[in-house]
Amino acid sequence: MCLRQCENRKVNHSKYSVVFYLIDIRKSSDHQYELSIMKISVTLLLSMLLSYALIGQIEIRTDLDLTPDHFPKDGVPKGELKGPFNFYSKIMKGTVRQYWLFIPAQNDPSKPASVLVFHDGYRSRHPEGSIRAPQVMENLIAKGEMPVTIGIFITPGNRSKDYPNDLGWRNPNNRAQEYDALSDRYARFIVDEILPEVAKQYNLTDDLEQRVIEGTSSGAIAAFTVAWHRPEVFRKVYSAIGSYVSIGFRPNETPIKLGGQDYPALIRREPIRPIRIFVQDGINDLSNEWGNWFLANQQMVSAMEYANKKADKKELTGPRYQVTTVWTDGEHNDKHAGALLPEGLKWLWADAK
Fold this sequence. Notes:
Strand order of the largest sheet: 3-13-10-9-8-6-7-5-4
Number of strands: 13
Largest sheet: 9 strands, mixed
């Protein structure tokens, strides 16, 4: 018997997608033919039942792309993107990085501006990228769907005297050491160095509800880590294709360094942080030696839901995790992270415009 895949047909079911594979069977004997038909029928039945079971549990968004908020609009006041500026950290010794500032046209120096920190600043501020955050901010601010906000777009550090001028879209060489570590060092860098640096020139808010920190991939776990360690400064997080996996895990070091895979356990066992988080990931995200990204993101959400239920059951006072999720059919890239940015920012600021 010869089996070959002859067609890959996608069938839309409401907002979900199910893929069926049609099999061409070539008979070599009657017995083999009947046996093969039986095996294939059972396999298809089980696959279909499993697919529909998953569909019943998880909504998968499809066909996501850039929205009208990602493009310039007539009549919308134009903000200014300033930079890049070089920054040499005392906390991240031996590194240099660049950052850009987006200053909206509506910014009034006499009034504190809200703050939005973006990781992987080169990509997230790029006008031809998948995120295009300055343009999204410009449009949302004009419509009153987010407050007047200064955007801080910061790259990871590079271990060099000067920042390489030929990196382009590639990552600086200290990214994993900063973004994927669970210690408080990167949080201290953002809170104790970057915010004061920008505040030298601009009037930034002290209102906790008016600050958001954002990231994709390892930038997402970096954003969460800042909120985890310093919720008195940042408690609103935009997390897309988050790398809550073992990239930063160092079992052979003394002391052992935890990795992103440890966050669900920490969330379940430690006191609840007052974090409001928008979570996106795709069913086609990575699965490799570091972990399975889609499952890792689901584990994060499950852990926060468990922590809330435990606190409710014990009738504990205090904060609860505020979580919304968007599961997509995306891969490990910025496409869906960028497409959902307007929706995510509006949700994060819905209670504080």
